[in-house]
Design a protein that fits this description.
The chain contains 6 helices and 20 strands. The chain is α+β, with helices and mostly antiparallel strands. The strands form 5 sheets. It has an 8-stranded antiparallel β-sheet with strand order 12-18-17-16-15-14-13-20, covered by helices on one side.
Amino acid sequence: MPEGDAKPARAPAAAARFGEGFLADIWYFVELADALKPGRMARYELLGEPVLLGRTQGGGLIALRDVCPHRAAPLSAGKLTREADGRETVECPYHGWRFGLDGACAAIPSLAAGQEMDVTRIRVRRYPVVESQGLVFIWVGSGEPDQDPPTFPGVVGGKPKLVDRMTFDAHIDHAVVGLMDPAHGPYVHQQWWWRSAKSQHEKAKRFEPRDAGFAMVRHEPSKNSRAYAILGGEPLTEITFRLPGLRWEHVTVGARQVLSLTCLTPVDAKTTRITQIVWSDHPAFVFLRPFIAAGARAYLRQDGDRVNLQNQGLRYDPTLLWIDDADRQAKWYQQLKREWSAARRESRPFVNPVEAATLRWRS
């Protein structure tokens, strides 16, 4: 086997053995900023928890646990109100309890005169939330954020040119491993404009550690990946992964750029929401946008179909065999997760366990 392995490495078993497996003290992508309109609220699920996400009338972001502590009604089904002191609050649709944007209760309308009660001691969880590069991230952790949300190269050309969404019936670990798998292309993504099972080449790609992840460093795209041809010129691409589930491909063609960002957001232990976002200032996304969008949509759904097919085997909790070099990225992902959790638990800096390497496989 490559790298001197005597036998295939044994991966963690199926989702049951992954456990919940969610990282804490980290930013999770939740939504596009443009989807959150002033005065509107919506219910999301993140890591198995209900989250109210919305904007105040003034445009500020709101992120609260979407459960009223009185009778458990979803606060997102209520409305935004304004207190006498000018503060905006969220009003529960069941009994009108109102909560400030910090999560503290501001009023309980059913209290009669003389019924003294310090309502501010009643709280719902507030999630730190931030808007960056047109994306909304929520911090999931025990305290306030101690790091900035991730930023991405190539957010150019104004608003995204393409946005696609899909839900995978899989734990985020399986979704991530499938996303970074370099060998499935000829078998899963068989289109005339991409590649076929008959077109397989031996690849050798250089990888290096990056912030909370790793990157396949900038290189010329594979000759059997026809989709790059529409960009013309001499495209160069770099593919980066970052915890907890962010993967982006940044393509440059001279001064023009294309950024394809895939965000994996865990809904619960068995469901992962996929959001694909593409920015570009390349003219191909003006003239060929409908064709590019159709191709990208088909590509993502082919991955979804294989995840659903894989689930037929995962239900039996098999032990999965991972081999070098094709599965090295999957191993790095598990190492990154373990180090992230250990560093937070031990209150020390994160030390990236990924070492620079050249990986080889056929696809």
